[in-house]
Amino acid sequence: xxxxxxxxxxxxxxxxxxxxxxxxxxxxxxxxxxxxxxxxxxxxxxxxxxxxxxxxxxxxxxxxxxxxxxxxxxxxxxxxxxxxxxxxxxxxxxxxxxxxxxxxxxxxxxxxxxxxxxxxxxxxxxxxxxxxxxxxxxxxxxxxxxxxxxxxxxxxxxxxxxxxxxxxxxxxxxxxxxxxxxxxxxxxxxxxxxxxxxxxxxxxxxxxxxxxxxxxxxxxxxxxxxxxxxxxxxxxxxxxxxxxxxxxxxxxxxxxxxxxxxxxxxxxxxx
Length: 271
Known about the structure:
Number of helices: 13
Largest sheet: none
Helix content: over 70%
Number of strands: 0
Radius of gyration: 23 Å
Shape: globular
Order of helices and strands: HHHHHHHHHHHHH
């Protein structure tokens, strides 16, 4: 009886927490369907929906071009981060020595450096060589995200027995083939975590793209959101509709990788 009561209380608390978490998203969606007057007069109440906001937001965002830029930058950056971080972490986890320890602690130490402290020198250096474009943005995203990703992968690879490496070698695989065919798939939950963490950060980032990308055809969705706000007028109803259009892709990605993320969290808790 006691266990049933505890289970029911847990369910109630979980539902309440879920409602609290969903509340901002519901408010954004409801207000994205309102006219400007209804938005300011009754921001928390339902009103007759108007889908014209989405049509106007789609046009103002130049959504197809902006979406392509965001996807190109995010996908390429995440692929590079995943590849480089996993290979580096595997080498560090399988190599025991002072150099490996120094490299690992340097990776951990760089996480303490705030981006704002290197922002101006970084942009200045790339600007002097006339290299401020999507490629440089991808390289910056990769470099800035590698430290955390290496540390996450490092912990995952420590949990993979070295006997798996040896078995792959006995079967005739070299180090590269063993890594990509056996070792990396064994830590796929961590790969899902690394992908979703970096994808969310890069997709929603405004500051770094605003400093690097200065051409209209290269703008990402977060940069395009700026055009909803002028000196004397702010189109909040269009901004909210654009925000819904912006978060849908990353929510879909999270749903697709949810199983891997939960599995990674569970494995980490057990260890």
